Amino acid sequence: MLQSIGVANIDELFDEIPDSVPVANFRSIEHSLTEMEMMQRLSERAREDELSLCFLGAGSYDHHIPAAVWDLATRGEFLTAYTPYQAEASQGTLQLLYEFQTMMASLASLDVANASLYDGGSGLGEAILMAVRSNRSAHSRKIVIGGAVNPFYVKTANTLVRNQGIELVQVPHDNGLFDPLQCDVDDPSAVVVQQPNFYGLLENVDAISNWAAERKALLIAVVNPLTLAVLKPPGEWGASGADISCGDGQPLGVPMASGGPSFGFLCSKMKHVRQMPGRIVGRTLDANGDVGYTLTLQAREQHIRRAKATSNICTNQGLLVTAATIYMSIMGVAGLRHTASRCHENTNYLVAQLEATGRAQRAFSSPYFHECVIRCAGNVDALTKTMISDHGILAGYPLGDIDPTLEDCLLLCATERRTREEIDLFVELFSRILKES
Amino acid sequence: MLQSIGVANIDELFDEIPDSVPVANFRSIEHSLTEMEMMQRLSERAREDELSLCFLGAGSYDHHIPAAVWDLATRGEFLTAYTPYQAEASQGTLQLLYEFQTMMASLASLDVANASLYDGGSGLGEAILMAVRSNRSAHSRKIVIGGAVNPFYVKTANTLVRNQGIELVQVPHDNGLFDPLQCDVDDPSAVVVQQPNFYGLLENVDAISNWAAERKALLIAVVNPLTLAVLKPPGEWGASGADISCGDGQPLGVPMASGGPSFGFLCSKMKHVRQMPGRIVGRTLDANGDVGYTLTLQAREQHIRRAKATSNICTNQGLLVTAATIYMSIMGVAGLRHTASRCHENTNYLVAQLEATGRAQRAFSSPYFHECVIRCAGNVDALTKTMISDHGILAGYPLGDIDPTLEDCLLLCATERRTREEIDLFVELFSRILKES
Amino acid sequence: MPTIPTIFDTSEPGRIAGVQTPKAGDLTGLPAEALRVSKPVLPEVSELQTVRHFTKLSQQNFSIDGNFYPLGSCTMKYNPRGAHRAASQPGFLSRHPLTPAFASQGLLKCFWDLQETLKTVTGMEEVSLVPMAGAQGELAGGLMIRAYHEDCGDFDRDEILVPTAAHGTNPATATMCGFKTREIKVAADGDVDIEDLKRLVGPKTAGIMLTNPSTCAVFERRILDIADIVHDAGGLLYYDGANLNAILGKVCPGDMGFDVLHLNLHKTFATPHGGGGPGAGPVAVNSLLQPYLPIPMVGKLNDEYIWLDENYFPLTIGKLSAFMGNAGILIRALAYALMLGREGMVRVAEFATLNANYLAAELSKAGFQLAYPTRRATHEFLITLNREARDLDVRALDFAKRLLDFDMHAPTTYFPLLVPECFLIEPTETETKAVLDEFVCAMSKIREEAQEDSDIVKQAPHNQVVRRLDEVRAARVLDLTWSAD
Amino acid sequence: MPTIPTIFDTSEPGRIAGVQTPKAGDLTGLPAEALRVSKPVLPEVSELQTVRHFTKLSQQNFSIDGNFYPLGSCTMKYNPRGAHRAASQPGFLSRHPLTPAFASQGLLKCFWDLQETLKTVTGMEEVSLVPMAGAQGELAGGLMIRAYHEDCGDFDRDEILVPTAAHGTNPATATMCGFKTREIKVAADGDVDIEDLKRLVGPKTAGIMLTNPSTCAVFERRILDIADIVHDAGGLLYYDGANLNAILGKVCPGDMGFDVLHLNLHKTFATPHGGGGPGAGPVAVNSLLQPYLPIPMVGKLNDEYIWLDENYFPLTIGKLSAFMGNAGILIRALAYALMLGREGMVRVAEFATLNANYLAAELSKAGFQLAYPTRRATHEFLITLNREARDLDVRALDFAKRLLDFDMHAPTTYFPLLVPECFLIEPTETETKAVLDEFVCAMSKIREEAQEDSDIVKQAPHNQVVRRLDEVRAARVLDLTWSAD
Ligand SMILES: Cc1ncc(COP(=O)(O)O)c(C=O)c1O
Ligand SMILES: Cc1ncc(COP(=O)(O)O)c(C=O)c1O
Which residues line ligand 2 (CB under 6 A)? Predict the structure, then answer.
């Protein structure tokens, strides 16, 4: 090979690198390990972190994932392909994405969906940017955010949008709920509401939706896609429905995996599609007139529109979308519905049993779904620490971390994976630890 | 569908079952579980049995398996295919088997290999039957078995062959070795020797091979295929080489998995091929003159030859062969050679360290490879129990179970997966436990 | 898709997958004459080359995951991925086979549960999970029959009866057990010819091997009579469980007079067949044969699970494998059984039978000839393409090859031998009506093609990676291993 | 292979995968107006139907595991299965993102190790692993540059310079950061036009975004001069790490004058691209920008690993994701880094460069035109098919489509925009010489075909599941979701 190139050795191939750039010094990097040695090291670490039971949600949920989902998603042809730039050689991924878009749009009861964003948090940022671009009638660049929108999402969105002169105005929650009447922004460009909200409570989405519409603000719905099998979908909220819906796809067959990779999804009414960021797949015809799939509306994207693109996103979260599409196919309508309702019933049971101990009660009284805030008679920090250290149990999210008024509160959920026995065990430990502390 | 068939309900479809056969009563069978519930139950059980370190071999070895091996072998197209009866729709499996046959035959330095038998034990049984069919010059149906052939294999083979009037004559081992001169059978039909033998010792295979040849007995070589990367292959033993080689394929990329599924392999000289049991794949041409692969020599098999078949085997261990073929491809010559030699060095180190404690010494003095018998100064049973219960360590195979003269002996090996630290830990525990007991 | 060079063709001396190659170990001290000098023919390729090669090869396989696969007698139904996952857990995969029972309670409990389930499923007294496939189950069964007669001092019983339609493993097994095989005729309606049976049965009869539904794909209606006849003559009844899918939860072999049987877990219990295997062929027996079961089994002693070996079963026929059969397949089967549960098991037989009868009805309406038109289909059924062979000069084999071009695997062909030009078709319960309808369409289309230009069918397949393969050449010009030339 | 109906086409109302469907939970008490009435369009299929559908779909994809995939700028090299396995362990997969640090020491140690490794690899002061792809890394970088200037009281710097050849994400990112983009010319030899740079740089310059090797696939030889020019003007240098594969272990971006950069772990560190993603785009900075890094990072406090959040980095640009980026991808990258080790990293650059230069040389000998014939290829190189377009009326696009018929993925086409009819070809270090030779053959063959009958090429592909797709129609007649009609 060197001969064909006409050099004497490999070093010569680097002769355009100026000598004044020092040679890299990698001495601090270890010598190479074999796969076996690498696995030994990383297995040890993985084992170190294993816990046995999870009652924590707050945006990432411990659901059952059918074995088929990842067996299929990790087939080499899905796992090791690039973005489907050559459509004819990527019909598998492209058709899958078309099916995904159909499922997501339909779950949200909106017209279109894109092929994913990074995650729920950055997805909200993109949704806001999209809304601002789309809502040309708005006078302000202010966005009203419901008080109980996932705080991690709000922070993330803020990082993304503030550089474009967009201001996020968060309305403090009222007993856990978003009351737009307590908002002093007259002309928001968009309104963001989450259903169920971060505290698991059901917002009055119809009223909020109408409130936004009256102000010509676009409505952005942050949702947990699994709950849409049971809850009224954003497209059907109020008189005209939400304009944009976004959220994190983790509940759809993606392991918690420390939060990533998961994927952000984005759905909207058709009229906003040209402001949508990210890949979109369309169905078309080939030279023979047969059906085929291809990336479309690429004129929105950075590789064509460059500085004027709807977003800079390029690599997205395709593999997770693959898994989610397979998950939704296996689960179907009934599977999703039953899973969501079972989570709700399990959480209901958990809450009832906790209240029965006399050491806990609901922090908010309005209806919740799937997840719930519990006020504890005792030190929440000590409780969660002991639960982990002594029992390997994640006992929920201590809300004091994000809201001082909820210092003695835990955000809890019991997914469909939690058995009665596990919940009973948790309740017993909960009560015992609080008593002893 | 019922309408098309012309019945009113499904029950009618069973109306040819006489009423006098009672209806099945499945009340003792549990109600159905979802995949999630089934996984919860079986995960609990799997976890219950986890141990952390393995120094046990005795026919099943704790080797590293590259991740790619099973990722590929469990692709649906390999995993969920049937025996390749329709060759044109099964070229994947067939070509793979052709490549497998090539690798195995070459490892053994023999001409042909079949596409697998059940396991090493039953494989020895089939090898003996094959030898008896093939050796028409033999006057007896006696088989001489070296004293240190894997006792589980011998037992299994015996179950298979004794019904055809074949007698296995085992020569007691002499200091762990097979000395054919101590054998009083004059006209064996075949001689079975294992290399390295069950005790890890290196037999004088050249001499044994020649001894068998002089008596017109076929020589059957039981081997660990991994060791063939380093040890002289059966086809090169003595003046004329072994006739048949068999063994278990577990060391080639198959997890220990409680012993199964693994696979038995069988290689032989070309002149015996028509007596070979099991599937064999051949390369041929298609109607266009292009290369393709198909099952061949089927006239040996039960579905054609019925009562006169070379064996009744039908379903074999194809998937494990798939894994082994991938394993051998990834590892290549160097990978297998280094793995085998590293096992040997690790075992050497283990033995040296154990001897250094003063509480153990080798039971046999002749050279061993990969695995070794250690005589312990103390109660072996108590040792192995404590090792498991207190430390999660499998401390070797107590040979007293199969040979009373070796009651205080352990058969030990340290594969390439065992680190120096693990071996040192083991030696320290070994010495401490024996001291305390 | 092009044909793929062998992995040896892409090999290059000295190339290694470094990340998989441990440091070489020290071999000093080993006798030189024990060491290898010749270099084996193994691939010398990178890991990527291996991955790409076998990915490509896999894509040249039909499979249940990719295709309708109505291979009669083989029960190619969906293999739940959950069962595979359950058995692939590290606690099971990394367990050494010689781990003592006290440290293997999780696994032993699985085996115990499966034994109990299979007892109920078969209606038998006791189960041994050891045999590694149906054929090894048959062998175990034959050896138990032999041991039983010998224990009764009955040394002359050296004949096994099988219907002419029997699967090849039945007579082959009889031979391996040291028996002779005698074939009984099958009557025109597909049932065993009772008169022929009566003629052949006698004091030399060790037993009879039967499937029910039979390999003619019909339910052997006079099974209880057959049982009486054989039992009265002092013989035993062996049930070949290959067709158990048809009657799961409906009737039990134990209630049909069988003394011993095997199950093919890779059929009825949906464990994947892996392109050839592995399978598992547990045997079940009534009390007569219980003492002879192959070891080891799992027992329970004061709430602890234990291995039952020759100490507990001194009359055992012995070991059939070095360790404990195909343990991993047994776990998959248990997982499947748990997911089916009581109600699911019955559904299996019902929908398998519904699908087969529907497909039979539709094919018949489409003008194809059922081998036993007056009989119900069971979980499978037989058609004969004799008429097509005669009138159109296209044989069952041609139909089979042409089906591949329709992206469907062919049914079992030319089995049983007594039905000419036959297809044994088993759609299984996991296929949808749409798929069955497509199959009927494909069959009709192929017949149409044959009517127009039989060469299309006779030269099929056309769309596979290879054209029709020359099997005669394969057996004549033996090319069984690759070599550089 | 036929085209595959959508999963909705095979759907049947009421069909469920029972084994995946938990018992329904109780919803009483929930307000009626909160509940869903409409039924979503989701598949109603069996598990087998799902498995078969997606197995079939997967087979319609080119991938690294199946094909040579020389997509320039994307570094499609072998994705070690071991790295994937390591990250797929239950201890990692089942970890909730809000698990406190004291119970996550295993994971945090992995992140720490990766941070340390990337510091060395880049020659920078500090690393944040948070960004989830290259583009998000760019965003983080841009925001840090902005924050830095604002902290310096320098509010007028609102321009980002990029070469005209830059990747689209660079200008798009500049916009998202609230900057304007100014494009600098590229000289005829592929290097940045220094005079043009000098003309554009100034007090409004916030920074410059560059790759090196550049998107023209040559090493930017005057990088140190560029750094001086920009720094002297008060701007900062951003390094787009997409091409880091070319210099791994040879030189560090930190030594070329860059202040901030991202890496694409899904390129240089071989994490699988999943048909679109996920990736990971860690950012590295020198001490100037350290205070602004996106959170969280991992720190060490008395031998314990801790999360570093806004309490430790009060000037941080903030969070970029709800939790901690693409954690699983980071573990894969660490696994890959461990397996490469010190010596492997250098090998990556050497063999990537060797393969690219060899392929460039061979293509050139075969008569194809290199875009920069006087330059060394780096890990990739550019050819222009301008002559073929002019003389034979076949465009780069046609070559690309025809290559698919040779079972090879096409290189990147029409990027960078300034080179007409170009292919950006990146063979990567994990391909063998034989594969490169096949590519040269295929290219020559296609040109021959074009000479004989250009329609073969212009109407390609011929052997794929679809013929050439009408992209114009796709954008005009928007069909983005399935509906029953
Ligand atoms: C009727 C019948 N009996 C026995 C067998 C043999 O079973 P196995 O392949 O599991 O050994 C088969 C397998 O095809 C069969 O169909
Ligand atoms: C030069 C260059 N810069 C930036 C990017 C964007 O990286 P990512 O796709 O990881 O967001 C790419 C990806 O193709 C690239 O090639």
Answer: A 314-315; D 73-74, 133-135, 167, 169, 211, 215, 240, 242, 264, 279, 281
